[in-house]
Amino acid sequence: MPATVLIGAQWGDEGKGRVADWLAAQAEIVARYAGGDNAGHTVRVGDNTFKLHLIPSGILHPGVVCILGTGTVVNPLTLMQEIADLRRSGIEVTPDCLLIDGRAHIITPAHIALDAASETSRGGEAIGTTRRGIGPAYMSKMGRTGIRAHSMTDPERFGDQLQKAIRDGNWTLQALYGQKPLDATAVIAQYVDAARQLAPFVRDAVVFIHQALDAGKRVLCEGAQGTLLDVDHGMYPFVTSSSPTVGGALTGLGFGPRHVERVVGVAKAFSTRVGSGPFPTELKGELGDKLRGTGDKPWDEYGTTTGRPRRCGWLDAVVLRYSAQLNGLTELVINKLDVLSGFDELKIAVAYNIDGQRVTTLPYDLALLERAEPVYETLPGWSEDVMDVRSVADLPANARQYIGAIERIVRLPITSIGVGPARDQVILP
Ligand code: GDP
Ligand code: IMO
Ligand code: MG
Known about the structure:
- The protein has 2 domains: 3-95 and 204-427, Adenylosuccinate Synthetase, Chain A, domain 3 (Alpha-Beta Complex); 105-201, Adenylosuccinate Synthetase, subunit A, domain 2 (Orthogonal Bundle), CATH 1.10.300.10.
- The protein contains 12 helices and 20 strands.
- It has helices at 16-24, 76-88, 109-122, 134-142, 155-175, 184-198, 205-214, 246-253, 286-292, 317-327, 366-371, 397-410; strands at residues 3-8, 29-32, 41-45, 48-52, 65-68, 73-74, 98-101, 105-106, 202-203, 219-222, 260-268, 271-273, 311-313, 315-316, 331-335, 345-354, 357-359, 373-380, 414-418, 426-427.
- The longest helix has 21 residues, at 155-175.
- It starts with a strand and ends with a strand.
């Protein structure tokens, strides 16, 4: 059972990229299974900070093969940009170490324009998407009108498919949203050029993964987004359009559950979310600002993809228990414990009070969630800097108590603790 699935247990940005970077050291394959360049995974290696959007963090480990799986959506232009950025930093990106599954879907310029138009038309009800065209690309996929990555191996046909996709998109842009149509000619030339360069990367990743699994090679499935952004299980409609949960890893890569050994949930020591939607433990005043930071430190809470300030709040164990159940998590990794140094006290939501009732599971009705008042367990804080701590025994007693409380409330073992963004700033088992 050589597969490990890495899952965001909250609303994304839990530090999955840096955990994938640790785990990639013990993997032969690292595969993204869902989402597109809406993700932003920050990995700090020495003095270099890498911001990966679509390419798995495994690319930073020579010898690891990275895969963009069936369930992903690929923007050829931003992928080319990401490859160029990595190459500039001295990272090798060749068809030997990066595969795009031929079944993955292409994000077209029409999808990006439609994402923006849809958000604008929602006004105050906007989802706060990353405007990368993710939702419209999955709409085309589900509507069976999408373009798949293997089309890039025949650039002329790819150009024709794009032309049609833009024509259809323009119809919706004009008729539904009253927007100006896209000028197809220029963008098609750019896309066709990118397709020529990406064609050698397009392979049958399902066959490749099965050959690797049969040979006992270890596969790390790098999740993007987070459980609460799942289109089925998240806080719909304030979600992304894919399945970042464990089922998404199986359909998004094309193998069965018998291969999965570990399902690792990644969470921050507190909660954050970008975009709109319910957030029961959100802190709007001074405490929220303190969790977010002012932006002077690279890990302060501003989006990797959009630069938006992230909404911040106390840890929500109702959410974590939900994630543990949905994904069958075998363990939890907690990042950013260092950020909690200097708080007098810390709170963990153990239940919600909704209309006078104590609720310990996550309601699906957003109206109920909007009215949910967290029921907190309060714990004492600590003032010591923990960024140089490398063992649980050396943590301040109150930090140990906080970690112990999460394990008790969520009923999962915490196997690693991030105490800073660098590769070595981690407490391992
Ligand atoms: P991802 O999308 O889940 O990969 O997470 P992001 O990269 O979007 O956001 C996580 C941010 O927290 C990045 O800036 C990381 O460098 C940073 N980070 C991750 N773990 C830690 C940690 O333990 N401590 C600190 N201070 N920063 C961390
Ligand atoms: P990583 O992988 C945090 C959020 C957006 C918005 C909603 C829908 O870095 O954890 P979309 O563009 O996907 O249609 O936007 O989902 N969102 C993320 N939030 N981290 C992410 O990825 C996200 N990807 C999408 O902010 O609320
Ligand atoms: Mg991120």
